[in-house]
Write a structure and sequence with these properties.
The complex is a heterodimer of chains A (269) and B (88).
Chain A (H helix, E strand, L loop, with lengths): L7 H5 L24 E3 L11 E3 L17 H8 L4 E6 L2 E6 L8 H10 L8 H16 L7 H13 L3 H17 L3 H5 L3 H11 L12 H4 L4 H15 L4 H8 L6 H14 L2
Parallel strand pairs in A: 1-2
Antiparallel strand pairs in A: 3-4
Chain B lengths: L9 E4 L5 H11 L5 H8 L5 E2 L6 E5 L5 E3 L15 E4 L1
Antiparallel strand pairs in B: 1-5, 2-3, 3-4
Classes of the chains: A mainly alpha (269), B alpha+beta (88).
Function (chain B): Essential for spermiogenesis.
GO cellular component, one term (chain B): nucleus
InterPro entries (chain B): Meiosis-expressed_gene_1
């Protein structure tokens, strides 16, 4: 509520415009306030007494970057991929024209990972489903291709698009379990992949006691990042935790937590 | 070419999910009645299966494209009644 000055004439005759306001005895005299100057920081003007420094502009950490046309889209439109779209009762399915086991993973897998940047149908569906199928059936063909996958994954995460990040994190979780030694092979590349996760790690919605449906649908970024980092730690070998901790300082080890909880239960220590 | 194709005598719908129903679902997704028809059409003796679960892993469709299936269950409970069981 705004406190207003009493004006006798206004209350008694509302139709009449007040010519002069009458001040009551206890009210202080209006002091002339100098106009405040708005100025940028770190300037000489900012050092003046009556200047108000404007805050820094937003850095844009969460701002989405625009997508560039990807090699995946180019190859798909040229018909270079041995895939076809099929509709079934559950939605869509991908049919392969060539057996996956016979595919050259060095050529195709990085291309499919490049398609993670896509956000429109059918590109994002083909990329996601194609990666899933290739990782399921790749076996030992996946490990030699890991270095070529890092740049596409980094590009996808750098878009800062919520949907793309969710899909990429699920792909990363699948990648570390897809074959032996893949988790350990990723450890040297943590310094390229983890910084962007650090930015989004605390992006959890505080909805009080409300239901967060994005959690149920596995689309809550904060939770997905936590799951992904736990998978990295579990499958990354001995050096994984310390390397992750270097990039994401607020992380606590899930393995060590479980171990200490177990010790507490067994030995009461 | 093998001998004459064996045709089923009766058909019924599945009521409850089981591993057999899961495999039938996968064959019917690919456009076949069941494993018997697949082996007749494609002239193969063995079907690719996941070693851990025994579910069908890969099938070749009639247009020669390949369908790959997950290691885990794919047939939801609401799809079970669409699965046809053929008796010979």
């Amino acid at each position: 509520m705004v406190a207003e000055k009493e004006t006798l004439s206004l209350n008694k005759c509302p139709a009449k415009l007040p010519t002069r306001t009458k001040l009551l005895a206890q009210q202080p005299l209006p002091v002339h306030q100098p106009h405040s100057l708005v100025s940028e920081g770190f300037t000489v003007k900012a050092m003046m007494k009556n200047s108000v420094v404007r805050g820094p502009p937003s850095a844009g950490a969460f701002k989405e970057r625009p997508t560039k046309p990807t090699a995946f889209r180019k190859f798909y439109e040229r018909g270079d991929f041995p895939i076809a779209l099929e509709h079934d009762s559950k939605g869509n399915k991908i049919a392969w024209k060539v057996e996956i086991e016979k595919l050259d993973y060095h050529h195709y897998l990085p291309l499919f990972f490049d398609g993670l940047c896509e956000m429109t149908f059918p590109y994002e569906f083909f990329a996601r489903q194609g990666i899933h199928d290739m990782l399921e059936h790749g076996g030992n063909k996946i490990l030699p291709v890991i270095p070529q996958l890092i740049i596409p994954i980094k590009n996808a995460l750098n878009l800062r698009n919520r949907q793309v990040i969710c899909v990429t994190l699920k792909v990363l979780q699948h990648l570390v379990v897809s074959a032996e030694m893949v988790g350990e092979a990723l450890v040297p590349y943590y310094r390229q992949l983890l910084p962007i996760l650090n930015i989004f790690k605390n992006k959890n919605v505080n909805s009080g006691d409300g239901i967060d449906y994005s959690q149920q649908k596995r689309e809550n970024i904060g939770d997905l990042i936590q799951e992904t980092l736990e998978a990295f730690e579990r499958y990354g070998g001995e050096d994984a935790f310390i390397n992750i901790k270097r990039r994401i300082a607020s992380l606590s080890s899930s393995e060590r937590k479980q171990e200490s909880e177990l010790n507490l239960r067994l030995y009461g220590q | 070419m093998a001998g004459s194709d064996v045709k089923p005598k009766s058909i019924s719908r599945a009521k409850k999910w089981s591993e057999e129903i899961e495999n039938l679902y996968r064959f019917q997704q690919a456009g076949y009645r069941d494993e018997i028809e697949y082996k007749q059409v494609k002239q193969v003796s063995m079907v690719d299966r996941w070693p851990e679960t025994g579910y069908v892993k890969k099938l070749q469709r009639r247009d020669n494209t390949f369908y790959y299936y997950n290691k885990q269950r794919e047939c939801d409970d609401k799809e079970v009644h669409n699965v046809k069981i053929y008796a010979y």
